[in-house]
Amino acid sequence: MKGAELVLKVLQQHGVDTVFGYPGGAIMPIYDALYQSSIKHYLCRHEQGGAFSAIGYARASGKVGVCMATSGPGATNLITSLADAMLDSVPVVAITGQVSQAVMGSDAFQEVDVLGLSLAVTKHSFMVRSVDELAATLNEAFTIAQAGRPGPVLVDIPKDVQLADIDAELQAISKSNSNIQTSLANAAAARKLIAAAKKPVAYIGGGVHMADAMNQLQQFLASNPMPSVTTLKGMGSVAKDNEHYLGMLGMHGTQAANLAVQQCDLLICLGARFDDRVTGNLQKFAPLAKVIHVDIDPAEINKVRFAQVALLGDMKQILPAISTQNNCSDWLTHCAQLKQQYGWRYDHPGERIYAPLLLKQLSERMPDNSVVACDVGQHQMWVAQHMRFSSPRNHLSSGGLGTMGFGLPAAIGAKLARPQDTVITVTGDGSFMMNVQELATIKRFRLPVKIVVIDNQRLGMVKQWQQLFFNERYSETDLSDNPDFVALAAAFAIPGHCITRKDEVTDALEAMFTWPGPYLLHVCIDDKDNVWPLVPPGAANEEMITEAKA
Amino acid sequence: MNHVLNITANNTPAVVERLLQVTRYRGYQLTGLEMKPRSDRSVAITLSVSGDKPIHLLTSQLHKLYDVVQLELAGSELAVLSA
Ligand SMILES: Cc1ncc(C[n+]2csc(CCOP(=O)(O)OP(=O)(O)O)c2C)c(N)n1
Known about the structure:
The structure holds two protein chains of two kinds. By secondary structure, chain A is of the alpha/beta class. Helices cover 35% and strands 16% of the residues of chain A. Chain A folds into three domains: 3-173, Rossmann fold (3-Layer(aba) Sandwich); 187-341, TPP-binding domain (Rossmann fold); 355-524, Thiamin diphosphate (ThDP)-binding fold, Pyr/PP domains (Rossmann fold, 3-Layer(aba) Sandwich), CATH 3.40.50.970. In chain B, a hairpin with a 4-residue loop joins strand 2 and strand 3 (42-50). Chain B is globular. At the A-B interface, strand 5 of A face helix 1 and helix 2 of B. Chain A: Belongs to the TPP enzyme family.
């Protein structure tokens, strides 16, 4: 067998039946092997899109996402998506073709130092020098992608290695990623802090669901009733019926979440990393709080915020071990009042569509367990604020990198991972155009993805900052000459509809959901609508600007 | 502050680049580098670095690298937390 066939055999050993990619010269042997393989390859229309689909697939399913590209431009097109996977800890294996070793290092056609490029955007990367190392290297790649804190791994395979003959019997692969070391030595100290706290808050990130510790989290919050807040990636971690859940914290978080964190005396950070979009001014973040930090990545402990007690390892084991008795009923009452006092308001004058209300309606109308993949900008924050999710696997949002163009291809990956579930992408008129070519992927595979374009004819989030912090100098954020999005979808055989008025929303959502195939709903909103509340740069999280104050 | 890190790593073609990339990105300056291959598989690397930030912010990131097998901060307790 050839190296190229071996690649696919090893992928199959790892349970891979779906890959995303785009062919080219240096990866042709692998594409030739794919021609007869039972692995289903989904041709994207740009490698960035293919890798985002792999990310969407991984995030929606919990499995490893796999993408491939050719050398040079194919591989460089992957870089943004790998960076996205790196910052959001998504297990992805990227396979790139490389020029033959005979010409490597000679500036050969489509030769780029992909291993060098990968250093800053992957958890690890390999260049395979010999076909004898190929299977073992791919196995390692899958192990590394999933072990501990997950992340992207790149495997660069020169063409001669793909073409080389090998008659190796496949080695059985060991599922080796279950031996996470967990130390419970600090559990007693954590319990002591929790038992003594008068005002505890659980601050929940993406690490909880990635550790598969959703049940343990609900039990922890049930036996130690306390207010909880989530990051963008943690949204959906807290059961919908948990009355003490306060929503997302941070720059566009809810006022209740931010105020509770600012006032708390104990912050229990579960699989989160004190990102600057969460903390605002770090010196003023949760100024009264002691911190318990639970994470699988030692490098996150004391990276930005000192933790009085740190616990490293498997969240599933740690959560029960730090569970104790705590009575903070006055604090719960106080936080319930904050939640009540600062609840969302959906009254909005005029006939025009108010995106937060539309998203709330969408959230209520969509089938249970729908996946929402969003793009980046104001609409992304409105999704986080106004939609509810039953699992973080149902809310795919580019958190760490904030990559426009994420939504559409991520939705494609999610739909392929979970064909039974409804998949919706909520995108902006700017972001949609960044990977709009993936409509062709939807067309080819007749993927029933629902596309909601929230069109404010602006690069809205940047425009909002220009309005608030740059003296209303609207430099290069006008998109009022957008294409006709419904006509654009029609070019890909995707039906659509455009709405501009509030009273059209209910029927339009109904039409979108009852249509059996892909569908584009073009939602025109007022370009003046902004995301509130907002913690301005450099401010503490209690210094939120609200619409009334703006 | 100057620090000396004694590292045992997999002897792979990119390993030094990885160490240097992390060192630079995390905001430390390289002041010295010495390496001795021990075998085909293993290499001993001594990194001297200077930086204003606490050194654990660097050691914890270097320790995370897949190719780093062992890391010691000369003249101090291991600054890396582990489970
Ligand atoms: C690839 C990329 N380029 C630039 C940015 C900076 N950026 C953040 S939000 C935004 C505007 C997004 O506009 P749109 O998709 O229309 O969403 P809106 O904010 O209007 O809802 C821009 C340009 C980014 N996040 N990603």
